[in-house]
Structure formats: C-alpha cells, structure tokens
Amino acid sequence: MQDRRPAGAAGAAERDAVAGRQDLAAAGIAELRALGERVTPARRAVLRVLAETSEHLSVDDVLARADAIVPGLHRTTVYRAVETLGDLGLVTHVHPDHGPAVYHLASSLTGSGHLHVRCRRCGEIRDIPADLLDDVAARLARQIGFRLQPDHAALTGLCRTCADAADSTQAGPAEPPVDDPR
Ligand SMILES: [Zn+2]
Ligand SMILES: [Zn+2]
Ligand SMILES: [Zn+2]
C-alpha cells in the first residue's frame, strides 16, 4: 500500500516522532523539487505546519499557523498551496460529517495512512487503523461492485466520554463507569 512513497522520503518518522516530523517537511520539500515543482514560501510553510502536528487542521487552521512561519501570506496563496500539494499527492484531506475538510501530510510522506472517527457531540476527530474497513470494502466490491474509499470521510458516532455522559443522562443510575477519569 506504499506505491506512492517517494524514495528516501519516509522512514525516519517511525524512529523518532519529533526529528521525524522535521524530516517530513524536508522530505516534502525534496519531493516537490524531485517533481520539478517550485518550492514557494507558502508551500514550504504548509508542509512545515502539517509536519509539525498530528492534529486535524482545516485550511483556515493551516493558514493561521502558516502565517506565524511566513507572516503576511495571502489566504488565497495558502489555499492554492494546499490544493497543489494535494494534487501532487503530498497532502491528503478527510471530510468530517460537519465542518470543513481537514488536512494531513499524505501517507506517501508519513509512510502509513489511517482512517478517522469523529464524535458528533464534542467534535473530536481520532485516527483509527487504516485496515479497519478492509472486510467491508471487500464485501462491497464483491456484492455490488462498489469501490469504497474509507479514508475520504470520517465515520461518525460518540466518543467514549460523550457516550458515557449520554448513558448517564438517559438511563438514570447506571453501572459505575469502569474507567471514567473523573
Ligand atoms: Zn465526544
Ligand atoms: Zn488523522
Ligand atoms: Zn474530498
């Protein structure tokens, strides 16, 4: 599943998260050059912002952080940079059930992909294993010929904290939560 992995770009991230993240931005910049693409300040800033976090950032979030790296970047410039990096396969996005798409460095740079769940109540987005829906995808392909792209949209539900809260308000006295931190 690593067919788009640029030579020498990934791997370091698995050894050391912090050093790896810095390497990821450098790998992205190297890949831009390898593709014959310009390394503009906006593209460099976007790669750095996404390399430095495992959070799920909207374009506006990326813009705010990119502005701290290269002050005065135009909103449209950053938008275009994100879009171009997406077209080049260096950045991917996922659509939550509500709100704007959120962005990641592509698995071609990080070396591994993942899927997402989003809590309807608190909005938290969490990473889940990339292969979680492989059986579902295989069944859909077999039964109706549908090719599932499970990484393009987040699955929706309630996180543990919100599910526990919902249970306790709906069901009255219930079993004490086993691992409730509060
Ligand atoms: Zn929640
Ligand atoms: Zn994620
Ligand atoms: Zn999309």
Structural class per helix/strand content? alpha+beta
Question: How are the strands ordered across the major sheet?
Answer: 4-3-5
Taking all Cα atoms into account, the compactness measure Rg is 19 Å
Instruction: Measure the end-to-end span.
Output: 41 Å
> In the CATH classification, which architecture of the largest domain applies?
Orthogonal Bundle
| Proportion in helices | 40-55%
What is the domain total for the residues?
Answer: 2
Strand content: 5-15%
How would you state the average pLDDT, rounded? 87
Number of helices: 8
Describe this structure as you would to a colleague.
The strands form two sheets. This protein has a three-stranded mixed β-sheet, with no helix packed on it. The protein has a two-stranded antiparallel ribbon with strand order 1-2. The chain starts with 11 loop residues before the first helix and ends in a 12-residue tail after the last helix. It has helices at 12-15, 17-34, 41-51, 59-69, 75-87, 107-110, 134-144, 160-170, and strands spanning 91-94, 102-105, 114-119, 125-129, 155-157. It contains eight helices and five strands. The protein is globular, with a radius of gyration of 19 Å. The model is unreliable at 1-15 (pLDDT under 50). It has two domains: 13-111, Arc Repressor Mutant, subunit A (Orthogonal Bundle), CATH 1.10.10.10; 113-169, 2-Layer Sandwich (Dna Ligase, domain 1), CATH 3.30.1490. The structure holds zinc ion (3 copies). One zinc ion is lined by residues 119, 121-122, 124, 158-159, 161-162.
